[in-house]
Amino acid sequence: MELVARLSETLRVVLLLICSQGTPSYGRLPGSRYYGRDAGIVFPEPSPSPAGARRPIPWYPNAPGPMFDPSPPQNVTALKDDIAYLHCIVHNRGNKTVSWIRVSDLHILTVARYTYTADDRFEVIHSPASNSQSWILKINSVQPRDSGRYECQVNTHQTDPITFPVYLSVFVPTAHILGSAERYVDRGSTINLTCIINFNPESPTEIFWYHNNKVINYDNRDSRVSVITDRGSITKTVLLIHDAHDAATGTYSCVPSHSATASVRIHILNGEKPAAMQTNGASTTVGPCCFYSLAQLVVVVVAVVQLVTVVQLVAVPFLWPLSPP
Predict the structure, then answer these.
(1) Is 79 in contact with 170 (CB distance < 8 Å)?
(2) Distance between CA atoms of 305 and 226, rounded to whole angstroms?
């Protein structure tokens, strides 16, 4: 009985000591979050490096599982035949697997570091030696058909993985010269050619004008040639050739970098007036009443023959009584 009394007294003293300390604080475990009244969540300090410098935490400690870094771009643009890079950064991956999926046909492109497609333009870039958290889908020689949504997936659940979507847009730059592909210009007038360059995420770095496959030099101040360029999402460049002469006849080409080539044929006239003529972009045609094609002439002759035949057939019954016996 004496032993039981002593244990009861000891337990009472311990309880009194605990109650006298006020509201108890929660425990602190290695690597755990700290909790306190109105304190929220506090992350542990990063461990010091061997040199003594403070090492930043590249991941969110004590996260429930893998999570994506929101910093990589989710809208990527590329020019046709260029290389496209789709970035994905996964924190707290653990032993989970990262995959890249093409959503348009639900085709699995890569799983971990392995490629699961017969299209050898696709590959994944990841460096396990450096403990990298980056998984980059590289697409060589991108084509317009590659445009669409791609997903970086982590198999946190067998039927419901977490995903990070990236949208790829592949542009095909085009260039065209306003007006018809063949035009006529009077001698001594000004040749005015306007080239429009579309579908470029950025303005082309260089734009050249060619005459008969030779670069036109318009840097000479005394030259009769000048170029005016307005750069932007849609770039416009204008070639002006003043006092055109016979040597200006030929093919002119607008050649921007990373874009298709546009060409036009110029004819210099010395007072000629062809049936169809375009002067500085304006069309001048001779009226149809002045010229007839061979086909039109044949139609007219056939119509006249048919008319004569009908007249003969109608007139014969009336002229029959007048015929001699």
Answers:
(1) yes
(2) 61
